[in-house]
Amino acid sequence: MKLTKKVLAVVLAMLMLTATFAMTASANVSDYILKFNEDGKFKIMMFADSQDDDDLEETTAQLMREALAAYTPDLVIYMGDNSVAPGEKQADAIAAIVAPVIEAGVPFTVVFGNHDQEQGVPNEDLLKEYQKFPGCLAYDAVPSLYGCGNHNLPILASNGIGVAFNLWMIDSGTTTAEAGGYDYVREDQINWYKDTAKALSLLNGGEVVPAMAFQHIIVPEVYDALGMMKIPFGVGEWTFDGQAYLPIPNFGSFTGFLFEPPCPSHINGGQFDAWVETGDVMATFYGHDHVNSFTTTYEGIDITTVPTVGCNSYSNDMNRGVGLITLDENDLTTYEYEVLPMYDFALAEGSKILDCEGALSKTSYQFNKFMAEFLAKLHSVFSGFSLPSFG
Ligand SMILES: [Fe+2]
After folding, report:
1. Among residues 300, 233, 298, which one has the least CA distance to residue 262?
2. How far is the CA of 287 from the centre of ligand 1 (A)?
3. pLDDT digits (tens, 9 = 90+) for 115-131
4. Which of 176, 208, 318, 346 could disulfide-link to 372, CB 3.0 to 4.6 Å?
């Protein structure tokens, strides 16, 4: 693929981008340049599917605050289905979900989910609302691309010399008649990703810059990653990329919780193959399926669903929480990831979650913790069990 001047301009622009927003916010430029810390670490916290209106649940906001205070991330990523207030109240809903992050002084970025733009305000306008807040690093790299807010954020080495890591934020769309349901990442987005990754590698002495990708809707490859039972024909609901499945996984193929069949698009636009071909993306993170919080691996790339942080959207109370990635620039061939469940925050000494309107009782949080640990043990018993494939 030929590199265009536009792509190179985008790479240079993104290196300067954080400075632009920092100046807008009247803060120090260095406050918003993403850089590994002196200890070599960089922490990314993910808030998935907060999915609330302008009257944000107190418990959701307090969970965000306590997670931010306890783990002091260097960046927060909103994973889509962030705000779902009707019409003009979307601006207030966005203000509510970013408030804990602004208070903590942490930079943040955003991907959109299938529900954000369903409230009558286009994602382009929602993006402008986010960009009004200090520390918002989200931007629309090439507005002509499918979707809105496709962008990447490089993380500099701790010595400030060179890009050590890269984060891709991709718009996985909403629902379309063409896809017969959830949307998929389109060819122009994939070409932008490949071109930009190539441009970054040129700036990195020809070596690919290791990366992670963040988007709302999961890729169809998750069905093969989970060892879902292939069948020669089936119902349309569980037919992805022309292959029918029964949503029964190989329990040994994943860690964490799988409480509902993942919901990718029925169409595969080739995004995962592009990641494999390019070789920069080691791990991918998604929202969308609120009650799932599993990690699985396919063709060397990790696939992780982040459970919902929202207390006003569908979920179960066993795995509501936030996701936390810890990178170490001394070894960027790997990373640490953990789900931080809400019950652990609610049960921690000094937590104010129990005092919030809408909170569960302490006993309920204790029960949820017990059940989560029990199911994790049960999962380990079934981890050697899988069904044959007939597809
Ligand atoms: Fe959602």
Report:
1. 298
2. 7
3. 999 999 999 999 999 99
4. 318
